[in-house]
Specification:
This protein has about 110 residues and is α+β, with helices and mostly antiparallel strands. It has helices spanning about 10-15, 20-35, 95-110; strands spanning about 5, 45-50, 50-60, 65-75, 75-85. β3 (about 50-60) and β4 (about 65-75) form a beta hairpin. The radius of gyration is 13 Å and the shape is globular.
Length: about 110
């Protein structure tokens, strides 16, 4: 089964700001999400521990780590809400909260 991955505006801008090789790795991870959906696991995807309703795509290139937050919207649709370059070992709570806020606005708009 092929899954649809929707990348919202901010993550698109973020992805376009990455260098070409890093961007290619990120797009490959998005393709893996399209192919495997809920079956994509570590090291590519992981549930955000504090928030079981949110997942992260994890991409490493050189010494840089990119995190893209996403959620399962409907049967075969996933939505990428936001992304950032991770500098420390722990996820930034502010980035998690931002992703959850974007998710809530998206659900309000698309579920009426």
């Amino acid at each position: 089964m092929e899954y649809e991955v929707r990348v919202l505006g901010r993550p698109k801008s973020f992805l376009l700001s990455l260098d070409v090789k890093f961007r290619a790795k990120v797009f490959r991870s998005i393709e893996l999400l399209q192919e495997f959906g809920p079956f994509l696991r570590e090291p590519h995807s992981k549930k955000v521990r504090r928030r079981k309703i949110l997942f992260e795509l994890r991409v490493i290139h050189g010494g840089n780590i990119c995190r893209l937050f996403y959620f399962h919207f409907t049967e075969n649709i996933y939505v990428i809400t936001s992304g950032y370059m991770k500098k420390e070992n722990r996820l930034r709570v502010s980035e998690i909260e931002k992703a959850i806020s974007i998710k809530q606005r998206y659900l309000e708009k698309h579920n009426g």
